[in-house]
User: Fold this.
Amino acid sequence: MQQEMNRENPCEPCAEFEAMLALLAADELNPAEQAEVADHLAHCDRCTETLERERELLALIAERRIEPDAALLSSCRAGLEDALDREEERGTLRGLIARVLPGGWIAPRPAWGAALLLLLGFSVGMLAPRLLHQPVVAGNSNISTRESAPDDAPADTSRSPIDIRTAQVAGINVMPARDNQPPQVELQVRSRQPFKVQGTVNNEDVKSLLINVLRNNDRFDPDVRLDAVDLLRARNNDSDVRSALCHAVHTDSNAAVRLKALEALNGAEPQDLIRQTLLDALVDDKNPGVRVEAINALRGMAAKGQVVPDDHMLAVLHERMRKDPSTYIRIQSAAAIRDLGPREKF
Amino acid sequence: MIGISVALEGDARQAAAAKLAEEHALVRSAQAGDRLAFEELVRRYDREVLRLALNLVHRSEDARDIYQEGFLRVYRNLHRFRFECSFYTWLYRIVTNVALDHLRRRTSRREDQAPVPEEADGGTRDFFDRQPEHRASANPEKRLLGQELGQHISAALKRLSPRERMVFEMKHYQGLKLRAIGDLLGTSEETVKNSLFRATRKLRSCLDGMR
Assistant:
């Protein structure tokens, strides 16, 4: 029947080879089958044309391939984390009910079971918000949320400093700043029992969490790292913060984060570490935007007399002036040498 | 020369074994309730899961649903994973089942509803249609043709059955071999071959008019 149809339509391939052509286009034939099809194609124009159309079709469809963008992936991850939180809460509740009311009691009394569940749900709904918003008591180790703390106090006195230094930050919410005050920050921290830390960047726990994000940059999303850099900028004269920002410039895989970290170092107390970080970025960073920021920052510091040029620095600038692929950086390096180099004596 | 290649193969095998052992350790931690270990496993594979979902359903909202439902099922059933296959294979099996359920639901919903004109505005266009036509952006006529082609491809893909769509996606977008697809879908290689053939035939008949 198929063969008859194909004979009527000269564009159709030979019926006995039609499936094999689709598999050949999909690279799914073994060598013997490939040889068999090749022999047939040598004297069959219809099948040759069909194979060409098959490949053309796959190429057309491949061109319309969609790659998930970072924003969608990020929102999926955030949604999943929320869903997992809810799942864990439900699991805890189920475990509690199972302990209080063994299945053997509920099974023969479904109506009682349903009524009890309703009552329990109502009670949890009424009581949980009040319990969760009680002020933190020192020594209580089962805290899941935390109201904002004064800047000079740890955000949560119940957790050990080790928890804070190694905690994973899932998300950062920044509230708008008022009256030149640092913005309030809410950090969602992942752990077996997720919790939130609130405060300004002047709070030591908040600072430690943000530094942890930059120090372990491969474990966090670029959005979280960018927020961390942005917030830490206000404390760039703190030695731990400065060191974390320099670490981000050296090691972060995302050029936007490295660039922002370089910007955040601007205005920090000039120290050898910062100067060396700028020079390292100028020499090693593959991204021209980061190198431009580095040379501009070096020139800015030179103009203010904040860097004392030495042989190493001048050698780096000379090398950039000759070899950097970016014309702008070559020109700026020459200008920096002119500003910093030894003056000609007249 | 042969000695070097044997040594390199040995190194690659050792690296693969180390990676597998590390992954098994992560799975065991996740099975013991370590949420961070589970999230690390998610991050290893979630981009591929989202890519599969997005190219199957063409709507970011639906892809997000498949992503979330898939990983939640993995989380709930983690204690059932017995290390008899790779974690990736096991995860993919679950996600493809979720995606197939989603496609089936959508197909039956579409059949229940009155037909909506393809060209109508108001959310009936899918993700493919909203993608900019990069190749022909400078030429309005080519851009229009590109958009038209995109709509035809979307319409043609929608004519495939959920299983044909899944096989086609896994073969031509994910680059999997038919035997692996059969393993993932819990069916024989022969059945997968037939699905791929039917899918290709339907697409060809839909898109021949565009040439």
Q: What stands out?
A: The interface with chain B takes residues 18-19, 22-23, 25-26, 28, 53-54, 57-58, 60-68, 72-73, 75-77, 79-81, 83-84, 87-88, 168, 190-192 of chain A (CB under 8 Å). Residues 1-8, 133-149, 156-162 of chain A have pLDDT under 50 and may be disordered. The radius of gyration of chain A is 32 Å.
